[in-house]
Design brief:
Blueprint: H1 2-15, H2 23-35, H3 46-55, H4 59-64, H5 80-92, H6 96-122, H7 124-136, H8 139-144, H9 150-170, H10 173-190, H11 198-208, H12 213-239, H13 257-271, E1 273-275, E2 282-284, E3 292-294, E4 299-301, H14 310-315, E5 321-322, E6 328-329, H15 349-352, H16 356-366, H17 378-399, H18 412-431, H19 440-456, H20 460-463, H21 465-484, H22 491-517, H23 545-548, H24 623-632, E7 641-642, H25 645-655, E8 660-661, H26 674-682, E9 688-691, H27 700-708, E10 711-712, H28 715-718, E11 734-737
Parallel strand pairs: 7-8, 7-9
Antiparallel strand pairs: 1-2, 3-4, 5-6, 9-11, 10-11
Helix pairs in contact: 2-6, 2-7, 3-5, 3-25, 5-6, 6-7, 6-9, 6-18, 7-18, 9-10, 10-12, 11-17, 16-18, 16-19, 17-18, 19-21, 19-22, 21-22
Length: 741
């Protein structure tokens, strides 16, 4: 035993300063999946890209993360990630790829960090397999290829994990403070989502440190206080600043960062409901992103980030999506029905759950024989950390009222860590004929292959039957052969074990490449053969946009505009064309552009354009309208005003000029009043208004006043007739002019 330990120490010393050659191809794979062709995404998530454009123009906009250059309203998230994106755009120039680049690098960095974290305790092969599993988890590159926040959030939390592990190894309190402070930084990326790892941090520090309980409590209390101070630092500064000296806090109802953090970006994620100004009812919470797209044979659309209310679920059974195995799936954004098996439902399972059965078997093996009172080995302590990360996050996604598929990236680190550590542990038990534990490896391979067949089965029309049958057959054969050869020790058995791991990673690898193969969606990123729709899950059973509406999604209940979608089009249970439009029976896109049952080029993965304007927010500019507004601007601060950010974002990106989203992102923020608008018009700050509907929530009075006190501009002066301009403010809205003395 002493001889073996000395050999291990010598090996660690000799390899300390050497590059792991097996890690190189893993990093290259991650680099390819995260970076390749990001330069084709011209607008990325237009809502956030517009904010970066605005933040480049002044420190005021930069500090508050203003959506528009005029500093009227902020985006719906804290600023740290967007500070990084703005710095990237400052260095490399303002492009879609330059705002995506930080997240892509964070995705690669997460792979490297997981390798470092797992390797030190579980061995180099565990680190390699964990890194590879992280790189090939489909939702990881899908999110990292966009300017959404989650990839950077996960990287930051892994940095905090590295600091915590170092704190335990070195017994230095400074590293504990640094780890919890880093979680505070992560809070300023996506608020309460960063706190999902806290159970793991507390449990691990308590179990792993060899100090008195008095010191443990004192150290954790101090570290937690520092974390909270860092977390609310920006919020306190913003909320204590006079409202007339800063932008309105977007997506809040009280112009407060703390309300945004604990409401819209906090408790409402769990409950799925939020109060909307101007309505006494409850309606699903508004999204941080909105998108709608459809194709001739596939309709996959989304309204603002919301989940159906319970009465809508009951009333829309005819429009529910059918999950494999007969379970209904009627959640928004293909997030399924809450329940203990939600992560195995379609739309979620193909994003994150490919290796979950193997992880479960790994957990059993890693904790086999552990006594509650200890003592615990280092492997068991760190396994407990990853388990305390995995379980609470999995429970949240199993019961949460609304979230997007790409939030599931929070599960990727613990799943990958257990896949790596478990592969080595189960292999060791198998080779040592360690009783019942020696059956865990073939059992894990068999059940994981079965789940992967289940995940792929709805996609047979997209990927063919051969890959599905191949994974199933190879999984069964390899598991059975390993079971039969359990008493034999030779190189063939080693090759069979390696082959099994390759089989289990083959289809996740293909799924991880789908945003490159089929095109991605920067608004609602997901992986799969329909990744460009941003909805995940197998192709919709709906045959046209008139039938499917938003894939069976119902309009928010109780809204003052009768359930209108952002942009103002009437819904009434399905997406209907606005009154007076010429596209009867066709879906009305937010902002007024028609869909005509086909994806515009900006969404299509087969677009002939070399640049994908995939922002999902009508990411085109009506040049005739822009020319008219520019020519007739007489010194007004805002180029024009519109109901929400959908129509505003492309014009901000294109021109860098202020465009007012009167109701914030979704159009429901109670920012503007009639008296405030009158004052702005009298001061010459705005005179043109593009309206595509009646507005939402607290905007109803404002929209009514605009229509009653304005001059309608003839459409012939600003409306383009070319099909390429039918995105952004164009065909179905109205342009108004108001001048007051």
């Amino acid at each position: 035993m002493k001889h073996m330990n000395s050999e291990v120490k010598e090996e660690r010393t000799s390899n300390k300063n050497r590059i792991d050659l097996f890690l190189v191809p893993i990093v290259l794979i991650a680099t390819f999946l995260n970076l390749f062709k990001i330069w084709t995404d011209e607008y990325a998530n237009a809502y956030y890209t517009a904010a970066v454009k605005s933040m480049l123009q002044s420190f005021h906009n930069f500090f508050y993360a203003s959506f528009d250059p005029g500093g009227y309203v902020t985006i719906d998230k804290p600023p740290v990630v967007f500070w990084i994106q703005t710095i990237s755009a400052k260095i490399f120039g303002f492009h879609g790829w330059s705002v995506i680049l930080p997240q892509a690098l964070a995705g690669i960095g997460s792979v490297l960090l997981l390798y470092v974290l797992v390797k030190r305790t579980f061995g180099v092969w565990a680190g390699r397999f964990a890194a590879l599993a992280m790189a090939l988890t489909p939702i990881v590159p899908a999110v990292s290829r966009t300017n959404n926040i989650d990839s950077m959030l996960v990287f930051t939390l892994l940095v905090a994990t590295w600091m915590l592990f170092r704190a335990v190894r070195t017994a230095k309190f400074g590293w504990v403070l640094a780890a919890f402070a880093m979680i505070g930084v992560a809070f300023n990326m996506k608020m309460l989502q960063a706190y999902m790892v806290l159970p793991a941090f507390y449990v691990f520090y308590v179990v792993a440190t060899k100090i008195t309980w008095k010191k443990k409590i004192a150290f954790l209390t101090t570290a937690t206080a520092l974390m909270l101070a860092v977390s609310v630092s920006w919020a306190v500064v913003v909320d204590s600043t006079s409202a007339d000296k800063r932008p309105y806090m977007g997506s809040s109802q009280t112009n407060s960062v703390l309300e945004l953090a604990f409401g819209y970006n906090g408790i409402n994620r769990l409950t799925g409901n939020t109060s909307v100004t101007g309505s006494s009812h409850k309606q699903p919470a508004q999204t941080e992103q909105q998108t709608a797209s459809s194709e001739t044979k596939q309709s996959s659309n989304s309204s603002a980030d919301s989940s159906q209310s319970s009465n809508q679920r009951k009333s829309s059974s005819s429009q529910k999506m059918q999950a494999p195995g007969g379970g209904n799936q009627n959640g928004m954004f293909n997030t399924g029905n809450p329940g203990p098996f939600r992560l195995f439902q379609k739309g979620l399972s193909d994003q994150i759950s490919w290796l979950l059965p193997f992880v479960i078997f790994s957990i059993v093996g890693l904790f086999a024989g552990v006594k509650f009172k200890g003592p615990y080995t280092t492997k068991q302590k760190e396994s407990l950390f990853w388990l305390a990360w995995l379980l609470p996050v999995a429970v949240f996604f199993s019961i949460a009222g609304f979230f997007h598929q790409y939030y599931l990236i929070m599960l990727a680190p613990p799943i990958a860590a257990f896949a790596g550590a478990g592969a080595v542990a189960l292999w060791s038990m198998y080779k040592q004929h360690n009783g019942w534990k020696s059956w865990l490896l073939p059992g894990g391979i068999l059940t994981t292959a079965a789940l992967q067949v289940y995940i792929m089965s709805p996609y047979v029309s997209s990927i063919g039957a051969a890959p599905i049958a191949g994974v199933g057959a190879l999984g069964v054969i390899l598991a059975l052969v390993l079971a039969v050869r359990k008493q034999r020790k030779n190189s063939l058995t080693n090759y069979l074990g390696a082959a099994a791991m390759v089989v289990l990673l083959a289809m996740p690898a293909y799924w991880a490449m789908t945003p490159i193969i089929y095109g991605g969606n920067s608004m609602l990123p997901s992986a799969g053969p329909d990744s460009s729709s941003g909805m995940g899950g197998p192709p919709s059973t709906a045959t046209n946009s008139k039938q499917s509406g938003f894939n069976g999604m119902q309009p928010p209940s109780g809204s003052s505009n009768g359930g209108q979608m952002p942009g103002g089009s009437s819904n009434n249970g399905q997406m209907q064309p606005p009154s007076g439009s010429s596209n009867s029976g066709q879906m009305q896109m937010p902002g007024g552009s028609s869909n005509n049952s086909k994806m515009p080029n900006s969404f299509s993965s087969k677009s002939s354009s070399s640049k994908r304007k995939s922002g999902g927010m009508n990411a085109e500019v009506n040049q005739k309208l822009l020319n008219y507004l520019t020519k007739n601007n007489t010194g007004e601060k805002y180029l024009f005003a519109t109901t929400d950010s959908t129509s505003a974002a492309p014009y901000i990106i294109k021109t860098g000029k202020p465009v007012m989203a009167m109701g914030g992102f979704s159009g429901s923020d109670p920012i503007l009043t009639v008296s405030k608008l009158k004052a702005m018009i009298k001061k010459g700050e705005v005179k043109y208004f593009y309206l595509s509907g009646m507005g939402k929530g607290g905007q109803s009075d404002v929209i009514t006043w605009i229509k009653e006190n304005s001059k309608e501009i003839p459409s012939s002066k600003w409306q383009s007739t070319s099909s390429s301009a039918q995105q952004g403010p164009s065909g179905n809205g109205t342009l108004y002019e108001i001048t007051l003395k």
